[in-house]
């Protein structure tokens, strides 16, 4: 076991234990209020034996993590703590979170989830649709973080840190925004969520599963639960398997496409003027430099594209590299049935090609060569003029989704 430290929101020091090989898929365990990472000890061992790398994290103000001098324990700070840790991992783990930790994980992964995690498991997540649910959860949360006999597991100041009614209202609609494969493990005797409320929450998840455990204590996300481990490992093996997907010639083309999607790219719009003087363009991310002397670049164009014939025959074309604010432009030029240029600022460049105003960079090219490439053709251009804007960030594309550049 290795004990490591992460930087949370506003630089707060967060402590975690890690076991398992760094080459195995990662699972991050997040405990509930008033607990520490030690609560996961047996589960962490079981996950390691099942071929997982396990990161057990202490929340701020709990266990070995920093108890901040300013007493900042608001919910948003804890959400940003988790997002900060996930961004530092270098891998996208499955997040397993119990009770109050489940609230934190749900809020942290309600946006940009695919950037940070590959799955989510919620254990005894407090949800409730009746008027007394917020009060009941508030009483539980206060009791959980109140110091007990001996040294408290968490900072006593946590007891008064949360407006539970406001949190419950804020998280009421979060389920529909969590796009990860999600498992909700619900104890049928839980006093934090009724059977109906648990089912309602899972029904709103875009990709959710519900497991109901009958013979359990009111809360079973603790060190003594082998049942939790069994359900969790089953979910991991089905939804986030250890073995990497493999493509071999003749097998599913989608797997090949997903493998190619592991290469992060920028996004471009390739433009030209048709024989009637009308601008045409399409979105492409198969773009690369070829040579500095002479200055050559290439783009790959699908033969099925409506603009393919025009780009094949165009003497000149432009490649416009998009910046982060041009995601709507990318979508517009990737779609059909819309006047793409009517809604896009553009101008005629020096060499007669449409140049999109405000792009990260634009390359005006003369056609140098065209090569066949299966269901695409390779259009090689000799660069006549290049302009770029160094103060903007690129629009990125990775694993089928737009991404943002994060400077670390």
From TrEMBL:
Q: Which GO terms describe its molecular function?
A: flavin reductase (NADH) activity; FMN binding; riboflavin reductase (NADPH) activity
EC number annotated for this UniProt entry: 1.5.1.36
The stretch of residues making up the signal peptide is: none
Domain Flavin reductase like spans what residues? 260-404
The record's annotation in InterPro entries points to:
AB_hydrolase_1, AB_hydrolase_fold, Flavin_Rdtase-like_dom, NADH-dep_flavin_reductase, Split_barrel_FMN-bd
List the Pfam families hit by this protein, alphabetically.
Answer: Abhydrolase_1, Flavin_Reduct
Q: Which UniProt keywords apply?
A: Oxidoreductase
SMART domains, per this entry? Answer: Flavin_Reduct
Mind telling me which residue stretches traverse the membrane in this protein?
Answer: none
UniProt name for this protein: Flavin reductase
Q: Name the gene behind this protein.
A: hpah
